[in-house]
Design goal:
341 residues, TIM Barrel, 11 strands, 8-stranded parallel barrel, alpha/beta
């Protein structure tokens, strides 16, 4: 089930979704090691991309092993989207994705993310500005929820944006089956995703929402007819979901769940990548939330989760790895050097 996003070939339908605070380079590498064909960087603010600093230099340094990869942009002002998209494209991102789906309150209060589903005029102006900036050499895609709420007016706004984006030249859309008001409560409406795919014909539609196990990922493909699925919460601490999804799609039995030793080896690898990416001083704090997610697969998940939550430093994290997994711990490292961007 290969598909293309514009001129970017995607080997199979299982995609690492953008997740704020999670889908950084270390996590993307773990997902790719387990089979993810395509990954989306965590969402960034358009205006932040246009500043110069250590964070921007890191963001704008796309490594050779991190392809195909999309940069996801969020903001409120159409005027800043185009220059930010151009800078990300010049840095080497293969796809520019526009976030019209984030449901977090502080995002909505700043007229960003899911707020724009209720403002088709501004949303489509953003799409136009990004396409004008990069559309000649980078595919432009959208991330959407199915509307602000369950009202007919909200659905009309959704399809106004969708149809306008297709007409303008967007290459793909990812549709999460919850409304903005739902946040992460209730169920993702896969029937709505199916409707979007039917209405979009041959255009590329990816589905999102309630993809917590490999069986869910394959079930969404079959139930909705989408071209691919973007796996978010189901991949947190469980990069093996990509391996298992591929096996199920091929009609094979999925491999057995990772053993404690396999979990420890993957987490130690993730830790080593984070040390190289963030440096010793930051990695301990960054890895707390990662460790808690990996702990869900461990036989003593509650006790291990509590141990991770008590971590303050990289040395603390290394100690948890030794105690609970018995794995070799990488030596502390300085952050990777980054280019000027």
């Amino acid at each position: 089930m290969r598909f293309n996003i514009g001129n970017v070939a995607i080997a199979h339908p299982f995609v690492q979704a953008a997740m704020s605070g999670y889908s950084d380079l270390p996590m993307r590498r773990m997902s790719r090691a387990c089979g993810a064909a395509y990954a989306v960087n965590e969402v960034v603010l358009d205006r932040s991309v246009l500043h110069d600093g250590a964070w921007q230099r890191q963001l704008l340094s796309v490594t050779a092993d991190d392809h195909p990869v999309a940069a996801q942009l969020m903001g409120a002002d159409p005027a800043t989207f185009g220059p930010a998209a151009r800078r990300l494209a010049d840095a080497g991102y293969d796809v520019i994705d526009i976030n019209f789906g984030c449901p977090v309150g502080k995002v909505l209060s700043r007229c960003r993310g899911g707020y724009l589903l209720g403002d088709p005029t501004t949303a489509l102006e953003i799409v136009k500005r990004v396409l004008d900036a990069v559309g000649g050499d980078r595919p432009v895609t959208l991330k959407m929820r199915r509307g602000i709420d369950d009202s007919a007016a909200s659905e009309r706004s959704f399809f106004t944006i969708l149809e306008g984006a297709w007409a303008a030249g967007a290459s793909a859309v990812t549709v999460h089956g919850r409304t903005v008001h739902q946040l992460y409560r209730g169920s993702s409406n896969w029937d709505f995703i199916k409707r979007v795919k039917r209405a979009s014909g041959d255009r590329v539609v990816l589905g999102s929402g309630d993809l917590l196990r490999a069986a869910d990922c394959v079930a969404m493909l079959r139930a909705t007819g989408v071209d691919g699925v973007t796996i978010a919460r189901g991949s947190l601490g469980n990069p093996w979901i990509f391996r298992d999804s591929l096996a199920l799609l091929a009609g094979a039995e999925p491999p057995p769940p990772p053993t404690v030793a396999e979990q420890g080896a993957m987490l130690a690898r993730h830790f080593a990548e984070a040390l190289a990416y963030y440096g010793n001083d930051r990695t301990g704090k960054v890895m707390v939330r990662i460790g808690v997610r990996y702990a869900r697969l461990h036989p003593q998940r509650k006790a291990l989760g509590a141990a991770f939550q008590a971590v303050k430093t990289s040395a603390d994290f290394a100690a948890v790895l030794r105690t609970w997994y018995g794995v070799a711990v990488p030596a502390p490292q300085a952050p990777l050097p980054v280019s000027a961007g």
